[in-house]
Amino acid sequence: MRQPGNDDTLRPDTSPRDRRHRKDPAVRARPALYLQLPADPIAPSVARHRVRRWLTGSCWPPGQQEDIVLAVSEAVSNAIEHAYRDDQLPEVVDISGEIEAVPGGQRRVTVIVRDHGRWRPPPIDDENRRRGIPLMRACVDTVTIGQPDDNRVGTSVVLRSRVVPSLPRALGAGDNDINPPDAATAT
Amino acid sequence: MRIDTGRVVQAGREALVVTVAGEVDVLTVDRLRAAVDNGFEQLPDGATLVIDLTDVTFLGSPGLQALVDATRTARRRSEPLHIVVDHTRPVIRPIELAGLDDVLALFHTVDQAVPS
User: Fold this and answer.
1) For a Cys-Cys bond, which of A154, B29, B70, B100 suits B62, CB 3.0-4.6 Å?
2) Which domain holds residue B61?
3) Dist CA B86 CA B100 (whole Å)
4) 3-state DSSP call for residue A47?
């Protein structure tokens, strides 16, 4: 998935084992997330619900889920602030997510939150923003804030989660009925 | 988000407890702010204002800011404000990540939050 800024997650695999891991249907077949929401105050709660459901369906460890959900909620909250400051036609917020394999039998989530409001510097007294961005950075591995890929007006926030173990090979692709691994063995 | 305010008397000491349940974010935080402001207005002399977040399932930066502002108001009014979090992860995690566990007066239970 193209991302603005530095992206070194998709280095070529260095070993046959890593190549097999990447081709493993249990890794490749995980559904991606996409939703587009009106840029209004309900958007963060809808985004949280959908991201939680997606991560649970992908057997993501619960503690890590909550950190990712918090980061996405902060990014969506910031996006709707852009929209409301503009007094333009109703804006939308795009949220997309993918799970990618990381060499060494691990995986991570990348969520991108985009808005299309005309960027303005945040108000000096915007304490939410001053708290929200450090909070995002504490919740995930990296946060990259910039313009969307296609040079459209607006802001894109790329959230890359910390890595977690991949699912055991015994769990096949699309097998959503299998119970998540025992919580004691998940991070 | 549900929010209720009630009086508690314990060992002769009085508190006004604002009980919050559900998600606190940009959509609901104004109601929390209003309940806290009302709480300060109604607070009897010598009583403690308590915000009980035990049943909160989500707390983001709008909620964190509301708690910081409530703490500032309490200092300005010289009235005690105690916040109950009981180590529930949805609440204690963002508070710690934001470094606010030293700024807010945190307690594990409402009983502990009411001075005795």
Assistant:
1) B29
2) 2-113
3) 15
4) helix
Which of B27, B60, B97 is the closest to A138 by Cβ? B97
Give the separation between CA B34 and CA B42, rounded to whole angstroms: 12
Alpha-carbon span A51 to A66, nearest angstrom: 10
Cβ–Cβ gap A67/B26 under 8 Å: no
Which among A63, A128, A138 has the least Cβ separation from residue B62?
A128
Could you tell me which chain B residue has the CA closest to the CA of A63?
A: B89
Do residues B17 and B110 make contact, with C-beta atoms less than 8 angstroms apart? yes
* pLDDT at position A152: 64
In chain A, where the domains are located: 17-165
Q: Which of A48, A131, A139 sits opposite B58 (nearest CB)?
A: A48
Q: What is the pLDDT of residue A18?
A: 60
Q: Which CATH class is domain A17-165?
A: alpha beta
What is the SS3 assignment for A98?
Answer: strand
pTM across the whole model: 0.80
List Cβ neighbours of A99 (8 Å cut-off, separation of 6 or more).
A27, A30, A32, A58, A107, A108, A109
Q: How does pLDDT run across A154-173, given as a tens digit for each residue? A: 889 999 999 999 987 655 44
Using a CB–CB cutoff of 8 Å, tell me whether B33 touches chain A: no
Question: What is chain B's alpha carbon radius of gyration, rounded to the nearest angstrom?
Answer: 13
Q: Which residue of B has its CA nearest to A137?
A: B97
Q: Give the total number of structural domains in chain B.
A: 1
Task: Read off the CATH number of the domain in which B69 is found.
Answer: 3.30.750.24
Read off the tokens for A185.
Answer: 């063995």
Distance CA A157, CA A75 (A): 7
CA atoms within 13 A on the CB side of A179: 3
